[in-house]
Amino acid sequence: MQSSRQANPIIYSALLVFLGVLLAVASELPFSGYFQIPLFAYALYLLDQSSESRLGQVFRDGFLLGLGYFVPALWWIFISLHDVGGMAVWLSSLAVLALASLMAVYFGLANLIAKQVTYSAWRSLAIPAAWVLTEYLRGQMFTGFPWMGFAESQVNGPFANIAPYFGGLACTFLFIWAASQLSQPRLRNIAGVVGMIAIVQILGAWSFTNPKDSPISVRLIQGNFEQSLKFNPAEIL
Q1: pLDDT tens digit string along 113-124?
Q2: Coil, helix or strand for 221?
Q3: DSSP state letter for 11
Q4: Using an 8 Å Cβ cutoff, are 128 and 110 in contact?
Q5: pLDDT tens digits, residue range 184-221?
Q6: What is 143-211 written as a DSSP string?
Q7: pTM for this structure?
Q8: Suppose 110 and one of 90, 131, 185, 227 were both cysteines; which one would form an S-S bond, judging by CB atoms 3.0 to 4.6 Å apart?
Q9: How confident is the model at residue 227 (pLDDT cuts 50, 70, 90)?
């Protein structure tokens, strides 16, 4: 049976980019942590179905997914550079594409690392471990740029309650683990994911903080003016 890549490599590549875009868009939806799991499960399914063994091509598959993910996720930079800073459209777009490409390298590395583990008994842990490692490196290397980590979507997702115990990367691990399990939709895998979600939800019954004395009131004041005027000398009082 031919893989999606062998059948039509152009459609396969375009589908990876499109899934990356959907993942980024879904992160802005209510309950995004739930929506992203099946989307990423399908992405992992496609990455796993590829019969490609060349390291460069394996890296490229993950890179394409990351490129689709980070271009819309970083589009606010275009607004800052073009709308506010007055930079040319083509140069602002190129800056977004360059940074998105750099961030997509980590997706490529994650796929490359995960593909090296072929023993099925270990893959259920190797896949999330590879993605957690690269997400950690993305937040640390070259001063770090942890923007749009998968843990952020879990703020209103099924694994948020694990964060106070083990941090955001634990949320990422469980998110990737759940997606990798659902990428092979056997009854045992589905039951495991449902069971893990139930366990994490139970952890929400405990709180790390408790109110002390009477509550305080905090107000934040921000000037209501166009950002495009912020650095205009003529508008300075």
Answers
A1: 998 887 667 788
A2: coil
A3: H
A4: no
A5: 888 999 999 999 999 999 988 887 777 777 888 888 77
A6: G---TT-HHHHGGGSTTGGGHHHH-HHHHHHHHHHHHHHHTS--HHHHHHHHHHHHHHHHHTTS-S---
A7: 0.84
A8: 131
A9: low
Distances (CA, A) of 221 to 4, 227, 229, 230: 53, 16, 18, 16
Alpha-carbon span 189 to 162, nearest angstrom:
20
Percentage above 70 pLDDT, the chain: 89
DSSP assignment, residue 215? P
Q: Are 182 and 43 in contact (CB under 8 A)?
A: no
As a whole number of angstroms, the distance between CA 170 and CA 196 comes to 13
Q: What radius of gyration do the chain's Cα atoms show?
A: 21
- Answer for the pair 95, 82: CB distance below 8 angstroms, yes or no: no
Q: Percent of the chain at pLDDT above 90?
A: 55
Cα–Cα dist 183/177, whole Å: 10
Q: List the domain boundaries for the chain.
A: 4-205
CB under 8 Å to 4, separation ≥6 — which residues?
11, 12, 15, 46, 49, 50
Dist. CA 65–CA 23, nearest whole Å: 9
Cα–Cα dist 84/50, whole Å: 43
The Cα 128–Cα 113 span in angstroms is: 10
- Rounded to 5 degrees, φ, ψ at 217 are -110, 130
C-alpha distances out from residue 83 to 148, 227, 230, Å:
22, 9, 12
